[in-house]
Target: TRAP transporter substrate-binding protein
Amino acid sequence: MKKFIIGTIVTVLLLTIAIGVQQGLLFAKPLPYDDEQKGLDTQITIHLSHVVAENTPKGQAASKFAELVQEKTNGEVKVHVYPNSSLFNDENEFQALENGEVEMIIPTFSKMTSYIPNLQVLDLPYLFNTDDEVHEVLTGSIGEELLNELEPFHIKGLGFWHNGFKHLTTVNHPIHTFEDLKGLRVRTMPSKTLEKQFEAVGATPTPISFSEVFTDLESNTIDAQENTASNIYSKGFYKVQKHMTLTKHGILGYAVLINDKFWKSLPPKIQKQIMEAMKETTDWQFEQAVEMNKEDLQKLEQQDNFEIYTMSNEERQRFKEKLAPVYDFYRNNVQNNDVLSEIEKIVSP
Model:
């Protein structure tokens, strides 16, 4: 009898558990919806690599672009941004894009002149006078014409971004006239036009990677460099130099590039949405670049032991005249001089 009672109890318990499990499966509430999981099986991922800090015109624009792409594609496309050369540096990013190791990069156009010599036109000294002139050239038909020259490399150019006008900074003595540059080792990007620019004033151009500029200044491997106020401040170049001269002798800009094979694999609808995000980002970015350079210049003015000198109009004119032969070098070494002529129609004399 005792065994019978125990067996009955066990049977009832097992039946109760079974019924409970069944009812739980039937009536359990569904798990809460996680919108981060939406479309993960079809989500397109873009890895975007660049070499500067996030708090720069390019860095902020990259983040803005990523936000707009996600918004306009309703989450179908996710752009992962890798700043500060964390994925590739400016020496190997173009090749990485060509090889499909990354989907997007934003190199300076100066870094691309070895591939596309015509881009050297944007490195010519004193070519532009205002940010508005730069915007008109880079976002118009001239900019489009230059980007189309990337096609043989199986790379598509989505647009140009602007960082601002470049100035000179030096370690030991200020630059009041172009003669003060004589004998200095000046860091440049690997552009023949930029190299000729400094050779014309008796300096020694020294092409090195952007990621190495701080340490090379600190170790006195180089004596000077050219850059925008935003890069000088964000990268802390003022900490290892004493002098800055506001010259506005050239511009610093970027080409936004995407691997062409990857681009062509995207549905037309996605391509259209990405281009809409690019146009919106570009217009926003130009305004941000101007404001950020103003703000960062003010921050540089507040730094101890860092002198900022404004080159006079007379000295700028002397500098400009001294650099005139660089234009002859450009005209003799590029395939298409029409681009320079088209730009000169837009910019004021």
The radius of gyration is 28 Å. The longest strand covers residues 243-259.
